Amino acid sequence: MDLNQLGKEVLKAQPFSQYLGMELLSAGEEGVELALKVRPEFYQHLGVVHGGVIAALMDNALTFAGGLVLGPEVLTVEFKLNFLRPAKGERLLARSKVVQAGKRLAVVQGEIYSEEPEPRLVALGQGTIAKV
Amino acid sequence: MDLNQLGKEVLKAQPFSQYLGMELLSAGEEGVELALKVRPEFYQHLGVVHGGVIAALMDNALTFAGGLVLGPEVLTVEFKLNFLRPAKGERLLARSKVVQAGKRLAVVQGEIYSEEPEPRLVALGQGTIAKV
Amino acid sequence: MDLNQLGKEVLKAQPFSQYLGMELLSAGEEGVELALKVRPEFYQHLGVVHGGVIAALMDNALTFAGGLVLGPEVLTVEFKLNFLRPAKGERLLARSKVVQAGKRLAVVQGEIYSEEPEPRLVALGQGTIAKV
Amino acid sequence: MDLNQLGKEVLKAQPFSQYLGMELLSAGEEGVELALKVRPEFYQHLGVVHGGVIAALMDNALTFAGGLVLGPEVLTVEFKLNFLRPAKGERLLARSKVVQAGKRLAVVQGEIYSEEPEPRLVALGQGTIAKV
Q1: What sections of the sequence does the record tag as coiled-coil (chains A, B, C, D) (predicted)?
Q2: Is the pLDDT of residue D29 over 80?
Q3: How confident is the model at residue B29 (pLDDT cuts 50, 70, 90)?
Q4: What is the pLDDT of residues B60-78, one digit of tens each?
Q5: Number of domains making up chain A
Q6: Is the pLDDT score of B132 beyond 90?
Q7: What values do phi and psi take at C88, rounded to 5?
């Protein structure tokens, strides 16, 4: 099974990813792309996308990138996330990549864009993924 | 209006917090406590709570703690989160506190517990909140 | 050999820790305490201790805390550090502790105080240590 | 005064940067490059460069990148750093860049390479810089 197909199956098997509506656009050696359509229930009280939605999308993007190189049985050890701008677009796009991988640990980076409609960078992340 | 009441109103005004079902248990000088009942749609594919749920709860716990000292108009600059154990309980409990606050920035810490039914620490976070 | 003695020997065997003048005050199940006398060469251009000195001390405090529970052959996977206030005192004091430890990974927290002469918290850290 | 010249003067005015021997190779809109020759006193007990040296270099690289866009009066709010591989080369090279900048805050990324003699990526960082 190719990475793209595997990624789609894992994402489909995650109730929370389905609940939010995450889609895997691509997965390969070069990294992962996830998309998330913004629904009215994703906002916070000031009319922009809630940071928790962005954090959840970053978590998935980073973990999937780690799974590309470490295999599907991974867990997210930790990640750090900077919020760069409020997200107001109709869709969020996450791109992540593996920066370095050993046998048990991978270091990953991720970016989240808000399509307004041109993609604007709204969050930047860096994390560590471990093979279970 | 007291901090507790204000916190409840902000939480109620956040569609995403309502969508997940977050509850403010307490808010005061000593910090914030949020609770989140785990629903079937919150799991990932291995049968434990999805990291994205925990990240979203941490985001809210840290931001609310910052809002206690900086006022309600705050944004989360960044946070970092370690996942300590899989969360399997029926409810998540988040506790956060302000470690240091200036006029414009506050540094906050947060812990998330899974009630199994005794509370087990499942995530640890540290972040920076800014007055808008 | 007790943890205190072991910690002192590792610290003595680290040329960089000796170069800066780090001292291990205590090491035990409850965590680690390191001290660093501030010398004129530790400042930055605005007359306070350089962030790099604080980062180096945090790195050591976190790694030593991890070594308490994982054994002496550890490496620092990552850490995050907030600078809370400028440090102007004559000595820095670092306190770190293990928050959670598994077989291969430990999550640690650290605080750095500047003695002015009362200890003021100047930095807060959170990191991940791995058994080699 | 151009950014390159300004950066060199700030670096020269920092006793700790001089103590370690940091050099500014370039500073401009595209980011900052710093170099640090590895001296015997920079090692830890296992014969590789101490994490504290790498953390100090990362701190400077990130802060200088923030200073490019926010002006020379900046402070490092926080940063996060992953150690990717042991550094064994004769010189460390740090490259940092601004990912996003507002009026008061900039988000920066940095990489540290060990010249062995080909540059190998040994650390990855992400941080937040504020105008004082």
Answers
A1: none
A2: no
A3: confident
A4: 999 999 999 998 889 999 9
A5: 1
A6: no
A7: -125, 0
Which residues have C-beta within 8 Å of that of residue B5, sequence separation ≥ 6?
none
Q: What is the DSSP letter of B111?
A: E
- Say if CB D41 and CB C19 are below 8 A apart: yes
Looking at the whole model, is its pTM more than 0.95? yes
Q: Domain containing A114: what range?
A: 3-131
D105 in reach of chain B (CB within 8 A): yes
Which chains does chain B touch, 3 or more C-beta pairs < 8 A?
Answer: A, C, D
Number of Cβ within 10 Å of residue D30's Cβ equals: 12
Q: Establish if D26 touches chain C: CB-CB under 8 angstroms.
A: no
Is B52 in contact with A50 (Cβ distance < 8 A)?
no
Q: Which residues, in sequence order, are bridge partners of residue B124?
A: B82, B111
Put simply, whether D102 touches B (Cβ < 8 Å) is no
Angstroms from C78 CA to nearest CA on chain B = 11
Whole-complex ipTM: 0.96
Structure tokens at D64: 């200088």
B78 touches chain D (CB under 8 A): yes
State the Rg of chain B over Cα: 14
Task: List the single residue in A13, A14, A78 with the smallest CB-CB distance to B83.
Answer: A78
What 3-state DSSP class applies to A104? coil
**Ramachandran class of B86: left when φ > 0, alpha when ψ lies in -120 to 50, beta otherwise:** beta
Cβ neighbours of B76 in A, within 8 Å: 51, 83
Q: Are residues D55 and C59, on separate chains, in Cβ contact within 8 Å?
A: yes
Distance CA D83, CA A102 (A): 12
B12: number of Cβ within 10 Å: 13
Cis peptide before B119 (omega within 30 of 0): no
Neighbours of chain C (3+ CB pairs under 8 A): A, B, D
Distance, CA of B29 to CA of B52 (rounded, Å): 28
Q: How far is CA B49 from CA A72, B57, D50, in A?
A: 17, 12, 37
Cβ–Cβ below 8 Å for C50 and D82: no
Partner C contacted by D45 (CB < 8 A): yes
Q: CA D2 to CA C99: how far, in whole Å?
A: 47
pLDDT of residue A1: 60
